[in-house]
Amino acid sequence: MPRGEKDKYTDKQKRKAEHIEQSYEAKGVSKDEAEARAWATVNKQSGGGERKGGSGQQKSPAAKAKARESSARRAVATKHGVPRSRQQLEDMTKAELMDRARKRHIAGRSTMRKGELIEALRKVA
């Protein structure tokens, strides 16, 4: 028997599962097994029920544009051989900022976001 609620599936996915289930039953597969196979097939083909895209953190278009600009700046700096230490904090990745914060023994750095790391690094500099 399939587990979980089917509320998140689209009508098309539900119809598809029903059709697949009927097909299996016509071949002599038990009702429960047919239903389980049908939903497994739907999940395999479409990735499951409806979902809001992404990891949960949505960026605004302005934030995306700023990130692209920052990335482009870093790429140009790398191409021209500008050392990372001379770059602006905003142009650094979060991992690079974390590394700097670790070297400067900034408390609470592991829970900080990128903007908070930049602020903290500016205060100690």
UniProtKB/TrEMBL annotation:
Sequence segments annotated as region (Disordered): 1-110
Ranges where the Rho termination factor-like N-terminal domain occurs: 88-123
Biased composition (Basic and acidic residues): 1-36, 87-100
Highest taxon of the lineage: Bacteria
Matches recorded under SUPFAM superfamilies: Rho N-terminal domain-like
UniProt name for this protein: Rho termination factor N-terminal domain-containing protein
